Structure formats: structure tokens, C-alpha cells
């Protein structure tokens, strides 16, 4: 009796299906195991004991993780997302009302939350959006634009502790693109930090790099409309007599567009000097007011 070819093809097809199901199940099991191992291996440890001795030297605060992403979609449309984790070692690291971010213009906040960890990396408090306070700092009468900041009250927290902040917002202000300066004050060290700027608008993205060559852990990836800068293991800088400003020797990258927006004002600048002059005339520089109510709209550049 001859076996028909159609029967042979059917048996072969069924065998392939069984093998595919078996292989798929094995792959799924491996995927689950991989996800579990990844979660276990890469779960963040924010305990003070896990900080290296080199980063504790001359430091009253240590940035454990700082990841910031900026997307510029048009000259008046910018999206910013950030997650930052910082350990405060003692009371000299900050004021009781700690600034979360600083901002210009009006933006829509999509995300604003935080966590507080003790010295052993255990969560002791969670912050929701309505627990952050807004402080309006300066207002420019000519441009009608104000600058302000969002703060959180840390007056009753026992040292050392770790603060984790996540936020995202959409802004019409592109005159102040968030810069990268991880060592922006004395006595602060950094474990890991990254900033990505993605520009899909018509104006080209410009950048100015300062003092990067002196820091070997700085890594750059860039093209005409994309820029990524990251660094690890940046030691704290102590304050000394007659020391020049940190701007003169700490790693820093600034960004700008040739065509940008601030509030209801549109501007153009062909050089960094022209951009500085424009900001001096139009950015908020006077008056002071305080408003501790939380709002759904804020303006922002994260400090």
C-alpha cells in the first residue's frame, strides 16, 4: 500500500505544529525566567552602604541615578521626561523645602510623583502630585513670562535618606532647553547620569560642550538632530578659597535652537552671544511671589 503524498504532507505539517508549540512553550519559559532574573539582578539598591567610598569623599549628597529625555517636536513644542534619585547624607545637603525642578513659561504636567527611602533602601513614604508646592520666583513684565519651581517638604526626615522623583511635562517654551551639568554644585557626587535630546523640528539643534575632556567617563553620541551625553562615577568637588566658578571646570553641555519660543514671544538667534542677549531682555528677572498651592499646569526646566 502506497502512502499518498497528501497524507505525508499532513503528517509533516502536524509534526511541525507540535514542534512549534513545544519550542514556543520552552521559549516562553526562558523568557519568564529571564525577566525574573533581570528584575532580581537589576533591582535598584539605594542603600547608603552600597555607595562607593570614592563617591562618599567630600560629599553631602550622591546622585544615584539621573535620566532625562528631551523631545523637541516644533520650535514651540517640547516634551521633557526625567527620573532622578539622590541620597542626602546630612542636613547640609539641602534646605528643608527641597527644589524638585525649576521652570519657565507654561506647561502641562503629565507625571509628578516621588518616593522616599531610608538608609537601608526601604520605601518609607510616597509623594503624589498634590504634595508638591509651587513657588513663583520671578516675572518679566515685558514678555509676561514667569519662572518658578516645584518643591517638596523634607523637614521631618531622618538622615541619611534617598529621594526618588519622576516627572514628565509638555512645554511651549524652547528658549530654555534643559542642559546637562551633573556637578552643578559643590559636595555632590554622581553614580550615573544621562541626558538625551531628540529634535524633530525644522530648526537644527545646536550644542555647546564645556570641560568634557577632563572627565574620562563622559560618553557622547550625536548627529545633526540627536544628542546623548552620559557619565558615571563623578566625584564630589569640595569648595575652596579663590576657586573659580563650577561653570569654568565642571562638565557641561548646553543646547539651543535657531528659532525658539518663550511664552507668547518667538525669538531667533544665530549665535550663543545673541541668544544670551535675547534671554537677558525677555527672561523673568524681577518681582517675587510665593504660591504654595499645587496646580495642574507648571512651567519647567529641571535643575
Overview of the structural elements:
With 303 residues, this protein is an alpha+beta fold. Helix content is 17%, strand content 42%. It is built from three helices and 16 strands. The strands form four sheets. Strands 1, 2, 4, 5, 8, 9, 11, 12 and 16 form a nine-stranded mixed beta sheet that branches. It has a three-stranded antiparallel beta sheet with strand order 3-7-6, with no helix packed on it. Strand 6 and strand 7 form a beta hairpin. The N and C termini lie far apart (83 Å). 30% of the residues are buried.
Compile the SSE list and pairings.
Elements: H1 5-42, H2 53-56, E1 61-74, E2 77-88, E3 97-104, E4 107-117, E5 123-127, E6 133-140, E7 145-153, E8 161-171, E9 188-199, E10 205-210, E11 219-223, E12 226-234, E13 252-257, E14 259-262, E15 265-268, H3 272-282, E16 297-298
Parallel strand pairs: 1-9
Antiparallel strand pairs: 1-2, 2-8, 3-7, 4-5, 4-8, 4-16, 6-7, 9-12, 10-13, 11-12, 14-15
Give the N-to-C terminal Cα separation.
83 Å
The structure class reads alpha+beta
The fraction of residues assigned to DSSP E strands is 35-45%
- Number of contiguous helices: 3
Give the tally of β-strands: 16
Uncertain runs with pLDDT below 50, 5 residues or more? 1-8, 19-26, 28-42, 286-303
> What is the general shape?
globular
Helical content class: 10-25%
Profile the largest sheet: 9 strands, mixed
Q: What average pLDDT do the residues reach? A: 81
SSE pattern: HHEEEEEEEEEEEEEEEHE
Radius of gyration: 25 Å
Amino acid at each position: 500500500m502506497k502512502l499518498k503524498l497528501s497524507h505525508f504532507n499532513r503528517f509533516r505539517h502536524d509534526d511541525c505544529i507540535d514542534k512549534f508549540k513545544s519550542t514556543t512553550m520552552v521559549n516562553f519559559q526562558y523568557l519568564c525566567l529571564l525577566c525574573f532574573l533581570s528584575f532580581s539582578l537589576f533591582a535598584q539598591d539605594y542603600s547608603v552602604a552600597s555607595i562607593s567610598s570614592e563617591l562618599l569623599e567630600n560629599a553631602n549628597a550622591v546622585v544615584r541615578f539621573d535620566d532625562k529625555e528631551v523631545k523637541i517636536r516644533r520650535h514651540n513644542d517640547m516634551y521633557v521626561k526625567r527620573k532622578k534619585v539622590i541620597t542626602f547624607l546630612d542636613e547640609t545637603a539641602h534646605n528643608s523645602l527641597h527644589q524638585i525642578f525649576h521652570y519657565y513659561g507654561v506647561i502641562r504636567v503629565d507625571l509628578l510623583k516621588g518616593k522616599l527611602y531610608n538608609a537601608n533602601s526601604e520605601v518609607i513614604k510616597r509623594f503624589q502630585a498634590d504634595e508638591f508646592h509651587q513657588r513663583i520666583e520671578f516675572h518679566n513684565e515685558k514678555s509676561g513670562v514667569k519662572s518658578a519651581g516645584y518643591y517638596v517638604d523634607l523637614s521631618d526626615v531622618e538622615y541619611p535618606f534617598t529621594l526618588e522623583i519622576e516627572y514628565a511635562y509638555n512645554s511651549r517654551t524652547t528658549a530654555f532647553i534643559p542642559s546637562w551639568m551633573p556637578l552643578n554644585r559643590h559636595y555632590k557626587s554622581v553614580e550615573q547620569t544621562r541626558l538625551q535630546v531628540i529634535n524633530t523640528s525644522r530648526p537644527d539643534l545646536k550644542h555647546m560642550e564645556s570641560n568634557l575632556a577632563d572627565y574620562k567617563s563622559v560618553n557622547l553620541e550625536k548627529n545633526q538632530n540627536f544628542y546623548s551625553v552620559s557619565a558615571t562615577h563623578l566625584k564630589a568637588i569640595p569648595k575652596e578659597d579663590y576657586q573659580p566658578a563650577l561653570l569654568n571646570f565642571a562638565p557641561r553641555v548646553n543646547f539651543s535652537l535657531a528659532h525658539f519660543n518663550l511664552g507668547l514671544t518667538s525669538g531667533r538667534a544665530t549665535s550663543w552671544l545673541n541668544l544670551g542677549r535675547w534671554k537677558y531682555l525677555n527672561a523673568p528677572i524681577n518681582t517675587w511671589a510665593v504660591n504654595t498651592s499645587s496646580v495642574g499646569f507648571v512651567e519647567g526646566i529641571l535643575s
